[in-house]
Each structure stands twice: as C-alpha cells, then as structure tokens.
C-alpha cells in the first residue's frame, strides 16, 4: 500500500525531482515499447536538456506530492495541449495518473477549454484511452536523430 499523496501545482523547487522522475520513467517504463537508442534520445544523460523550472512554471503543471516526494506530474498548456505526463515506476496503476489527469481536466474546464490533446507514447496510450481520449492518428516524430512512433490523441470536454 502506498502512502497518501496530494495533487498540487508545481513549485520551482520541484524541478529537480520532476526532471529525475521524467528521466527514470522513460528509461525504466517506456523502454518496454522503444529501443535503447530511442530511449537515449528521449531521455538523454543530461536531464537538464530541458529547463524544467521555467517550462513547468509557464503552464499548469500538476504534481502528485507524497510527503515531499514527487511521484507524478502532468503539464497542461493554455491551448489544451498536455505536454509531459509521467508517473513514477512504483506508483503506476495506483490512481496517481488518474488524479493528475482529473486536476488537468478540471483546470481545462475552469479556463474555458473544450478540447484536450496530446502526442502520446505507445506506453501511455492505454491510460489516455481509459480517461476518454481517442486516437486522431499515429505519427512518426524525430528527436535527436531517432524516429519515434506516437499517437495524436484528443478528448472533447462537456
């Protein structure tokens, strides 16, 4: 049984944990669906290839906080795009992602959005289907010299 957690908005001091969580999740969970070369391109050794504090602060980033430990996060941009969405490997299928998603959807409705969309990994596609997203198309994207399959998905909000 996992400890309780709260969903809250990102604080700049969360950046280190969020970066580590992203890196570990891609390398230990997404490796099931992508090659080693793809994983290295997606989550390079330098976890600060992305300015986490700045990017997460510039949008609605929700974190799952278990007594000071970040166990998941999801980013909502003002146009309805969900950018990063990751849950720690030991908290997968425990309701963490669902609660982060519910916070994102509530914020989307609050700011007047009627549609959410994302480019979803092969790994995350079943989760997004469970919360009501449908596939628009499969696509190939390039990152650091590697080609990746992902899925453009969307959900219309009531």
Quick rundown:
By secondary structure, this protein is an alpha+beta fold. The protein has helices at residues 15-28, 36-42, 52-57, 96-110, 125-130, and strands at 6-9, 60-66, 69-76, 82-87, 115-121, 134-143, 146-156. The chain has a four-stranded antiparallel beta sheet with strand order 1-2-3-4, sandwiched between helices. Strands 5-7-6 form a three-stranded antiparallel beta sheet.
Low-confidence stretches: none
| Rg for CA atoms | 15 Å
Secondary-structure element string? EHHHEEEHEHEE
Structural class: alpha+beta
Mean pLDDT: 94
Subunit organisation of the chains? single chain
β content, as a range? 25-35%
| Sheet having the most strands | 4 strands, antiparallel
Query: How many strand units?
Result: 7
Q: How much helicity do the residues have?
A: 25-40%
Cα separation of the termini = 34 Å
User: In DSSP terms, counting alpha (H) and pi (I) runs of 4 or more, how many helices?
Assistant: 5
- The backbone outline, from C-alpha atoms, is globular
Give the strand order of the largest sheet, numbering strands 1, 2, ... along the chain: 1-2-3-4
Care to describe what's here?
The protein has 158 residues and is of the alpha+beta class. It has helices at 15-28, 36-42, 52-57, 96-110, 125-130, and strands at 6-9, 60-66, 69-76, 82-87, 115-121, 134-143, 146-156. The strands form two sheets. Strands 1-2-3-4 form a four-stranded antiparallel sheet, with helices on both faces. The chain has a three-stranded antiparallel sheet with strand order 5-7-6. A hairpin with a 5-residue loop joins strand 3 (69-76) and strand 4 (82-87). The chain is globular.
């Amino acid at each position: 049984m996992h400890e309780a957690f709260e969903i809250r908005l990102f604080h700049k001091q969360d950046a280190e944990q969020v970066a580590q969580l992203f890196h570990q999740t891609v390398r230990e969970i997404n490796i099931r669906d992508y090659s080693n070369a793809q994983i290295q391109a997606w989550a390079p050794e330098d976890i600060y290839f992305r300015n986490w504090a700045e990017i997460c602060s510039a949008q609605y980033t929700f974190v799952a906080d278990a007594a000071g430990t970040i166990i998941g996060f999801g980013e909502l941009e003002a146009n309805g795009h969900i950018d990063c969405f990751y849950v720690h490997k030991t908290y997968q299928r425990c309701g963490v992602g669902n609660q982060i998603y519910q916070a994102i959807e509530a914020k989307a409705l609050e700011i007047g959005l009627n549609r959410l969309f994302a480019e979803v990994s092969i790994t995350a596609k079943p989760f997004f289907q469970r919360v009501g997203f449908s596939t628009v198309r499969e696509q190939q994207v390039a990152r650091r010299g590697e080609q990746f399959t992902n899925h453009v998905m969307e959900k219309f909000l009531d």
